[in-house]
Fold this sequence. Notes:
The chain is of the alpha/beta class. The chain has 2 domains: about 25-145 and about 250-300 and about 335-410, 3-Layer(aba) Sandwich (D-Maltodextrin-Binding Protein, domain 2); about 145-250, Periplasmic binding protein-like II (D-Maltodextrin-Binding Protein, domain 2, 3-Layer(aba) Sandwich). It is built from 16 helices and 16 strands. A 5-stranded mixed beta sheet has the order 2-1-3-11-4, with helices on both faces. Strands 8-7-9-6-10 form a 5-stranded mixed beta sheet, sandwiched between helices. A two-stranded antiparallel sheet has the order 5-14. The longest helix is centred in the middle third of the chain and has 19 residues, at about 265-285.
Amino acid sequence: MKSPRQPTGHQRFSRRKLLTLGSGASAAALLAACSAQQSATTPAAYPDFQPTLESLNNLELRDITVGFVPITCASPIVNAAAMNIFQLYGLNVSLRRYTGWAELWTAFVAGELDASLFLSPMPMAIHHGFASGQRNIRQPFITNTNGNGITVAKRLAHKVHGPQDFAGLRLGLPFDYSMHNLLARDYLLTGGLDPQQDVDLRIMRPADMVTALAVGELDAFCLPDQFNQRAVAEGVGFIHVLTKDLWHEHPCCSFAVAEDFAAAYPNTYTALLRAIGDSALYIDDPNHRAQTASLMAQSAFLGLPEPVLTAVLTGNFADGTGKQHSIPDRIGFQPYPHESYGVWMLDALQRWDLTGGQQFTTASEYSTAVSDVFDADSATAVLNALGATTTERASETVLGATFDPTNPAAWSQQL
């Protein structure tokens, strides 16, 4: 397996150096990032919302710090603050904002956060020590399915029609341990390209990429849909493909909690899952999408232009080519952590040399590594009570091929 190229002119964190941000000049960068963090304040309880489940009276701890990056994938967490759902479940949650995933990873491993939004592959990487900086972690929820896309600069509208047309282009990605990275690489493979040799993959902060596209530093990016829609709104890009069309109902981001926190405060952990689960299912209702977009667009929460957030959540949007779309499942909020999701991610991480040298061969090894992190039992107890689906998926259809989690090698060999 070839090592990933280091892109020129952009900082790329190696797996072993990822968490050296706590020393030297990198510490200054981290302190600057921390100074930008905000604790989102919660308004009075939203009058139209009633908790689905009863709040627990025996909480061991009420004050909790939760990290997030302000993207649409964070909606279940952010909406729980915006609608005061956390407080209705007896919790006082402070949301701490980060602009990049490396900074959030560092803060979590350092014990500054009790729980956090993560890109879905991150908890496995943190728990199993795939990169430097390890902390035991539980991942009970997928915060969103779908909700991402590949956007291309408008100047390339005449050139880019399929994956084969990305040869020689600069493609922005938010993090090595992201579904964006893993799914985009496999999409490029379907066009006969070697992602590590034929395409210039650049890891950048998501917030910087629309500007980078506009000034010609990037040719395309694969990011959460707010950035795709912003590029359209600003007239600098067009949506080439939604990732839901590559893998329908694929996982994107997740919610995870430190193992020591969950073990020490089991009732608080349950209350936290009840609040976020209730919030996720509320947003998943199409009738609530526009309403919650208006609330979460506020600067204390996602801080996004309301028309952009509304376009993403409702699925009514322009794609930058002159076409209008109505795609209600552009993003979804069904939180159950299917084992098939984890096995696919683990297989992809291993194929792209992102497991820190650890090898997984048998179906049992894959399943154990995933179940060590995915807390399906806690998720099932809460989501069943909320009326959500918790039936495990037997397979996934990714890029037109069937992925069987009991035989991941067979799928990889098709690529």
